[in-house]
Amino acid sequence: MPKKAKVEEKEEPEAAVETKEENEFSIENLPRIGPKGLQKLQEAGYNDLRDLARISPKELADACEITEATARNYILKAGETTGIGNFRTAEEASERQKSKETITTGSKMLNELLGGGVKTQEITEAYGAFSSGKSQLGFQLAVNVQMPKEKGGLNSQCVFIDTEGTFSAERVSQLAEARGLDPKKVLRNILVARALHSDHQVMLIDKVREMVKEKQIKLIIIDSLTSLFRVDFSGRGELAPRQQKLNKHIHELQMLAEDYNIAVYVTNQVMARPDMMFGDPTTHVGGHIVGHGTGVRMYLRKSKQSMRIARLIDSPSLPEGEAVFKVTDKGVTD
Ligand SMILES: Nc1ncnc2c1ncn2[C@@H]1O[C@H](COP(=O)(O)OP(=O)(O)OP(=O)(O)O)[C@@H](O)[C@H]1O
Ligand SMILES: [Mg+2]
Q: How many domains does the chain divide into?
């Protein structure tokens, strides 16, 4: 593989821009499909077995003008080939778990809290009040994912979906320089999109699903996941539809993370209640919009000066605990 050699040319995040290896998930690898069937699938935009495995028979039948029985057959075969939505042994599932990779946050303590760092195949959610460090951690991860593996990165590019207009190229450059990286190259490896409304945000993720097939992307950041949903569904009685749509969006993110072995980092602003002295100050104020579905949830809060405290909230596989880290001009550190 030519890629290996490139990686060894120390700290060359541009190596990430290389085209991916041949796609083993190409629709052409669907067992026993005729040229006509193949053409219909391709014309309808299905080029990847992982997409095919996820779609419903009715949707596929309509898109390709084939019978539902044929559609079901294709989907089933795609499921068998990719392992998506199919039975597998617990041992195989465990192997898949082991293929998870981590991106360093920049803080050893925070990495430990998260079980090594921000993980692929999972959604990591940071929630907290303004200035708690949610965006800063996002910027830091966008830089760190570009670093070589031995430095805690994944030698890859990142997608940044900015819903609040707070993405700061200047701040990212500063963080890159602090890590000894060329800011220009680092910025080139971050694909930023400003989401305009909640539907647009959902559409952007569809687009990302296409991009990850071509590009070496290992991290998707949505800062913030929830703000546009809050704006678009702010009326009385809109809570249920908002929740429904958000759940679907989160589900799609989770599938993307699993299918392509990608880490997803999302932020969620919640107001702290100044009148509440004890317990979790963010309960009862719509703090649990995201709730289940995300892999790791951490609650961030500001402490003295640059200090931040992260607390893990109901993680299925990690012990509860807290980590203290700093956000300085150089970024996230211990
Ligand atoms: N260049 C810098 N040097 C030092 N500290 C910085 C720098 N830039 C940002 N910070 C720290 O990060 C804080 C902002 O954090 P961040 O933007 O992550 O908040 P947030 O949790 O995303 O808030 P919001 O909910 O408003 O989006 C600042 O208050 C400051 O303490
Ligand atoms: Mg922010």
A: 2
